[in-house]
Amino acid sequence: MIAIRFDNVSKSYPRYLHVTRGLKASLLSLSQTVRAFKQEKFLALHSVSFEVEMGESVGLVGPNGSGKSTTLALIAGVLQAEAGRVNVRGHVCPLLELGAGFHYDLTGRENIVLNGILLGLTRREVTAKLHDIVAFSELEEFLDQPVRTYSSGMVARLGFSIAIHLDPDILLIDEILAVGDLHFQAKCREKMKWFKNRKTTIVLVSHSTSDIRELCDRVLWLDHGKLVGEGTPNEIVPLYEKSQLVGNSVTAGV
Amino acid sequence: MDALHEDRVAAPRRREYLRDLIVVLTEKEIKGRYKNSWLGYAWSVLNPLAFATVYYLAFGVFMRVQIKDYPLFLVAGLFPWQWVSHSMGTAPNIFLANASLLKKVQFARHALVASAVLSDGFHFVLSIPVILIFLAIYHVAPTWMWLIGLPLLIGIQFVMVYGMSLLIASVNLFLRDLDRLTILFIAFLFYLTPIAYTSSMIPEEYRLYMYLNPFTPLVLNWQQLFLTGTLSGGGMLAAGTMAIVSAITGYLTYSKLAPKFAEVI
What we know:
The complex is a heterodimer. By secondary structure, chain A is of the alpha/beta class.
């Protein structure tokens, strides 16, 4: 069964000039502004097609600005494709970056409920999982302290613990396995493997090729919004690393 | 058949979810707002009281506006107005303040606006006892009509402010100048709404224009309820209609723009 299907998906961002340039600059070069409004677009994804099987772990690699986060946002449904079709089956849960969706004046307990609900669970469902979340985060003694007293590592642990306990069908991870101390990082990797065994679909964006090798069944390589390579980590990672070291972006497919 | 069944199970859960989302976000707003301030909830009363005092000085004492029981009159209009102005004043930043969330997670974003407006409404409700104190000072007693009038007007005001806030919050992502405009707009609106003066003080030829201000019927209803303990059907109908128009405009704009939020934020 297919969990995620991208069918010739393109996505471009208009450059909203009035936001960045201000009125004076826009008026001084009015014709340019008008033209820019119509034309100037940044092509983030260009006719990308791929499929992810249910239960598969797929890594996304590519240099900065290659379209990895755009791809995740399209899967999460936060962005809409401009051309082509995106099909996603199941409950998608993105792992949020450090503290997003947290309110620092609320306690850890209150934040678990808030974050769980923002990620799509009802209050009852979060409450039922509260114990497991707290146990995994190892933050029992700080649970009723406001999150602003937490260290950034503790915030990350709490966030990660919430996300992984929401029983997602599809887990989206954008470069945040490197959270917490070594002990917690090891625990996260452990949990990711558990997810894999449980046949949760995982899409992982990472610059750490060792994480990709360890966790992914397949790798998609993006460059300048195009899919330039697709294969097992052993096939793709060496090629990608080589291209990164040389500093050239690739144009030919693999 | 299967899909149909799934839908039937999903609908109540969706309702429960939306309710939980709004309730939890509202709780967050209420708990977060005064968490680090010494006077805490007293601010939801002190703020409108401070304005009432200064308007009383400026208009009542210095300019000698002839309105019976002027402090009471001011309080009756200012307390509900405080809700309007606070909600609309914070509206431009509601989505911006949650940028990292909006970029990653798909959820009913309008709940953020609803909860901000609800928490301001909560603070207004907390301030009602102060209005009662003013009534007692001027020997006016609340009537049974309050039991109908309060929830009805709070509901109408919520719908009205929710629509406006949703409009402002959504459009501000695309036109960031709206932030500044909103500040001006709220200040102008205050002086164009009969809060510090009565509608009968407006010269005849301008009185019609006063009703172009969507907040006029709402404020008149509040004053009537607080000061005379009565409601007028026509006034309620006018305020209700304005509220529905506001909510529809806000929601349609939001629905049109929401798919692009993550791009521009």
